Amino acid sequence: MPTNVNPTVRRRRLGQELRRLREIKGMTAEEVAERLLVSQSKISRLENGRRSISQRDVRDLCGVYEVEDHRVVDSLMQMAKDSRQQGWWHAFGDIPYSVYIGLETDAESLRVYEPQIVPGLLQTRGYAEAVISGALPEAPPSDIEKRVSVRARRQDRVNAPEAPLRLWAVIDEAALRRRVGGKQVMAEQLEHLIEQSELPHVTVQVLPFDMGAHPGINGQYAILEFPDAADSSVVYIEGVTSDLYLEKAHDVQRYSVMYEHLRAQALNADQTREFISDIAKEYTR
């Protein structure tokens, strides 16, 4: 697959365009579903980019919306074709969070708050193995290895020589104190975290216990932003059996404001490196 074709992003853009055409026609998703003899949930999944869109789906929808410009139809059909190609992550088999990986791969910047663990993009291999093994105690070693490999591949965006992902991570002190994989693994992880935080496009801030209650008290979330203005920002909240993607402007704005409060309450970058270094020393004694 050409590197400039991201199937996840193609699906999002195509879904947004199909929603726009439906709204111009003044139809509800339920009305479209009735015309095509499909479920309303299918129309919703097509529009939010969570489901692969076939060229037949595009043809049928364009027929319902009475799109007469063949150039528009051809463009949408091509997007549908591109959206069914496979991203690099498909080579690893079934990945539950493949939609997120597709978004992250195309994102320009990522703001993440982690209350329990070091963010995946900043993990060492040893730490990642311990985290994944602990989170999935019944998973076979092959599944653990696959997930670790995917995580390592995702980190290429952070370390890319050109146009790397701009990463801002606010990490709760609990993530640094939780002994994952033993003292040596933690010492190596914290040293790696300090090294990564010195990259010009990476900012790490620690939220100490002393700060008490804060806007992120309810748990982890990430905000992804994209280089193309046509791609709306996305708030990602990871779940055990399913994940949540928020794209409405007021939802993104609310989480963005929460993130600004977290950044204001956390230690600054220099204080954070000193704080992490002090904790790392405790793991080397």
From TrEMBL:
Domain of life of the source: Bacteria
Lineage: Bacteria, Bacillati, Actinomycetota, Actinomycetes, Kitasatosporales
Molecular-function GO term, any one: DNA binding
Protein name: Helix-turn-helix domain-containing protein
Coiled coil: none
PROSITE patterns membership: HTH_CROC1
Domain HTH cro/C1-type: 18-73
InterPro entries: Cro/C1-type_HTH, DUF5753, Lambda_DNA-bd_dom_sf
